[in-house]
Design a protein that fits this description.
With about 250 residues, the chain is an alpha+beta fold. About 25% of the residues lie in helices and about 20% in strands. The chain has 2 domains: about 170 residues, 4-Layer Sandwich (Deoxyribonuclease I, Chain A); about 35 residues. Helix 1 links the parallel strand 1 and strand 2. This is Endonuclease/exonuclease/phosphatase domain-containing protein.
Length: about 250
Amino acid sequence: MRCPRPCVHRPVLPSCTEEQSSPPMMRIIQLNLNHCKAAEDLLSQAIREQRINVAIVCDQYKNLDPPYTWLADANSQAAIWVQGKFSALLTNITEDARGKRPLIIAGDFNAWSTEWGCRATRQRATTLLDALAPLEAVLLNTGNTPTFTGALGYSVVDLTFASDTLASQVTSWAVSELYTHSDHQAIVFEIEIARPSRPATRQSCKWNARSLDTECLTAMMAGAAVPPGPTEEMATRLMAEITSACDASMTK
């Protein structure tokens, strides 16, 4: 007489929601793929739907090529698949920077955008700007001088952001011609530390320009009225009208 097959309880992955009261967690999945293409395809789907950060797999169907972050052993019998490293990095930066002033955020973000001199805009740049928007950070980059030059070309990927009040004290920003013995150029900028802060005149990330409702902005500005008076008072009222129009026509 054969023993009945034991009943195995298969737990369901906990759902991952946008709002979480608990601390940020790393979600990990492990799976033997049994050299099966369908299993590897289903794993990709599960990673997207369940927002998995790291997959630990063995007996994979094949190793994935860049841009996937896929780290396999020498015999291709096991691998670690890392997800969302850039988004996780931005989350750590913004959480640590929140509420801190003055603030400088700088580095090689490997993000392309025409806003800082690249030939095209890619999704990584959109992700970067969306992440920094709540910080009201100001992009200090000016011009389109490449910050990176390699065998396959050049690009502007080294970026500098500052809090809006500190940006008004930046007197210069430039890609230096100093020899660095690196494929990246140095960036040099100066901050006037004794100068009282004034409203930033550079482009700010306070509003999300991609959400602009042009009809709403036009209507709001058409109805704006600044009564005659002292120059400074008129300028203050005009800025208030512009701010109200931007608040009504764009998200932050």
